[in-house]
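[step 3/7] fold_predict: job queued, chain A
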Amino acid sequence: MKKILLIEDNINNQHLIMRFLIKDGHQITPCHSASEAYEFIQQKEFNLVITDYALPDENGIQIAEKLRSDLKTQSIPIILLSAGAFDTEEKIYHESLTNRHLSKPIDFNLLRKTVSDLLKNN
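[step 4/7] structure written:
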């Protein structure tokens, strides 16, 4: 069973993603903010992080920057979820920090394949 940290402040999106990934046999730790995510990361080890871009206290890129700068977490795959489009320069920077970027509304078949691919390689 793979452990996934899900950082999503929209409770409806969080529940939908959780139900979907739990059906695939994953253990999900949900949280609503970056500060809550950092607490969980200090307490547990995760095989994958899925983070929304827009959060109340930080954005998903700031989370990715912190995870990549810490030896304990730098190799954890990260999926960034966002509802907005990014310009080319931003997109290149985001892709350098995260393993995948998925747009909202979420295509759950694509999410399943992306999670499976990243966990297979981790």
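[step 5/7] annotate
The domain at 3-120 is CATH 3.40.50.2300 (Rossmann fold).
The beta strands are 3-7, 27-31, 48-52, 78-82, 100-103.
exit 0
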